[in-house]
């Protein structure tokens, strides 16, 4: 009887603990439900806003599935900045699918970068081509972009308008090493005699130095290309740049160089060896001389 009485005596001390925990548990559930409701409401607002911007239902579903954990308002803020830069819904979807990390950017960073791109003249729809080729223009360090722009303006002496055109037509220059980009321009200007306006118009800066040198020097050694003199004159009519760089290798050999693939193949091997030897000599010249006895 004592043991059973003891049992009855213990029960009141157990029950209150149970009832103390329940309100906290209910509060947690309530907060969770409220949070889900808020998220659902925000999602509906974002969907409505995207539809108002001209996105289709398919676009909206694609955008919401790119980064499922992205807060709806964050998604809307990033997309709004792209739309304000002059992009249409389709390019926005393509850009975000190619670079989902854009959705993780702080909105203030996006606003500052958008403002800078406008100053460069890349608003009003010109950004479409840039984003397709170089979507990292929003995630790159500011000083890296400024470095490339500085080379084009100060080292290569392109006008502000020409810099905008280059960035629009050849956005790949943003990935270039500044020193190599300057060398590429100098090669075009001094070795090939190409003026600033033609560098821009022909998209010269998008081609690799290897391809440019191989085709240009090959034509030189065949006597089919000459560096113009100070008056811009040559003894032979130089082929147009588009017939040198924009065509396939087969077309270049058949129509521009009038040579065979075998001859061009041998030449490329010789040129690569010459370049290697030249780099070796430059490295030796730059190294400190050994001290004498």
From TrEMBL:
<comment type="subunit">
    <text>Heterodimer with NSUN4; this interaction may be required for NSUN4 recruitment to the mitochondrial large ribosomal subunit.</text>
</comment>
<protein>
    <recommendedName>
        <fullName>Transcription termination factor 4, mitochondrial</fullName>
    </recommendedName>
</protein>
<keyword id="KW-0694">RNA-binding</keyword>
<feature type="region of interest" description="Disordered">
    <location>
        <begin position="1"/>
        <end position="24"/>
    </location>
</feature>
<dbReference type="GO" id="GO:0061668">
    <property type="term" value="P:mitochondrial ribosome assembly"/>
</dbReference>
<dbReference type="InterPro" id="IPR003690">
    <property type="entry name" value="MTERF"/>
</dbReference>
<dbReference type="InterPro" id="IPR038538">
    <property type="entry name" value="MTERF_sf"/>
</dbReference>
<keyword id="KW-0677">Repeat</keyword>
<keyword id="KW-0809">Transit peptide</keyword>
<dbReference type="GO" id="GO:0006364">
    <property type="term" value="P:rRNA processing"/>
</dbReference>
<keyword id="KW-0698">rRNA processing</keyword>
<keyword id="KW-0496">Mitochondrion</keyword>
<dbReference type="GO" id="GO:0005739">
    <property type="term" value="C:mitochondrion"/>
</dbReference>
<dbReference type="GO" id="GO:0006390">
    <property type="term" value="P:mitochondrial transcription"/>
</dbReference>
<dbReference type="GO" id="GO:0003723">
    <property type="term" value="F:RNA binding"/>
</dbReference>
<dbReference type="Pfam" id="PF02536">
    <property type="entry name" value="mTERF"/>
</dbReference>
<comment type="similarity">
    <text>Belongs to the mTERF family.</text>
</comment>
């Amino acid at each position: 009887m004592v043991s059973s009485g003891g049992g009855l005596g213990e029960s009141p001390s157990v029950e209150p603990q149970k009832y103390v925990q329940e309100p906290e548990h209910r509060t947690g559930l309530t907060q969770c439900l409220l949070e889900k409701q808020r998220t659902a409401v925000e999602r509906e607002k974002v969907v409505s806003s995207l539809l108002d911007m001209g996105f289709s239902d398919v676009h909206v579903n694609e955008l919401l599935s790119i980064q499922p954990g992205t807060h709806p308002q964050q998604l809307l803020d990033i997309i709004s900045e792209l739309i304000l830069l002059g992009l249409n819904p389709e390019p926005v979807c393509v850009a975000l699918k190619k670079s989902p990390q854009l959705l993780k950017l702080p909105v203030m960073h996006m606003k500052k970068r958008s403002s800078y791109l406008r100053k460069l003249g890349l608003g009003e729809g010109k950004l479409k081509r840039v984003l397709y080729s170089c979507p990292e223009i929003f995630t790159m360090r500011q000083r890296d972009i400024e470095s490339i722009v500085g080379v084009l303006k100060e080292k290569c002496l392109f006008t502000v308008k020409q810099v905008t055109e280059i960035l629009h037509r050849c956005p790949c220059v943003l990935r270039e090493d500044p020193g190599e980009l300057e060398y590429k321009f100098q090669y075009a200007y001094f070795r090939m005699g190409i003026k600033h306006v033609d560098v821009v118009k022909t998209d010269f800066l998008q081609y690799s130095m290897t391809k440019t040198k191989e085709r240009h020097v090959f034509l030189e050694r065949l006597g089919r290309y000459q560096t113009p003199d100070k008056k811009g004159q040559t003894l032979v009519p130089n082929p147009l740049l588009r017939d040198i760089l924009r065509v396939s290798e087969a077309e270049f050999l058949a129509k521009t160089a009038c040579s065979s693939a075998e001859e061009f193949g041998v030449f490329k091997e010789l040129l690569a060896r010459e370049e290697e030897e030249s780099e070796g000599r430059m490295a030796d010249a730059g190294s400190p001389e050994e001290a004498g006895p």
